[in-house]
Amino acid sequence: TDEPKVPYTIIYKGRNWVLAESEGFAFPTLYADGHNAVILYNKQPDGSFAYTIGKKSEFIPYFPVGPHSKPDTILSFLNGHEKGWGGGSTIGGAPRNSDGSRSRLTPQSIIALVSIALGQGEDLVYCASEVRLCDNLVTGEDTLCSECSPGEEHIGAEDAEIPEMMNDEVLQAARAAAEEAKKEELN
What pairing do the DSSP bridges indicate for beta strands 154-156 and 49-55? Predict the structure, then answer.
């Protein structure tokens, strides 16, 4: 039988993985559309985010979902930044807090953290004036993002100057990952 198509919107395309927004369980639709490694989310009424991370099968080695207890998995990495992430080797998700809320990590934070966990931190792009992930990275647009000024420069994580007052672990981790990748290139 054909399963009904659940609508979704691709928010970000990483290397061999996507972040998609949907009000329903869109994994079968995303898999049928050729996306084998997916992070699916929707914003909750309380402002938190419900994320589900999944891959089509165990034969997708480049997207190590979990479990959170196993080092070098996405769930383990996310659990190090926000307690409560859990699941198995092919599907897992955000915390389910006692107050009913889910993850406090924004989609941009998830993009950055998962990119870093997968060794793709050097793919992150920042708007130079505000040192934040550029929205055009998130939407996949080649035009100015909603916060950019005309002609604003975009920079990679290794060039992001992080102000002392900005204590953002995501930006710092992205910068460290980019510096590490640069060192590996030199060796």
Answer: unpaired
Cα distance between the two ends of the chain = 54
Compare 133 and 14 and report the one with higher pLDDT. Answer: 14
Enter the pTM of the model: 0.72
Angle between the 107-117 and 169-186 helix axes, to the nearest 10 degrees?
A: 30
Question: ∠ CA(37), CA(8), CA(64), 5° rounding?
Answer: 15
How is residue 62 annotated by DSSP?
T
Condensed to tens digits (0 to 9), the pLDDT of residues 121-166 reads 776 666 655 555 555 554 444 444 555 655 556 655 555 544 333 3
User: Side-chain half-sphere of 12: how many Cα atoms within 13 Å?
Assistant: 26
Residue for token pair 């997916």: 38
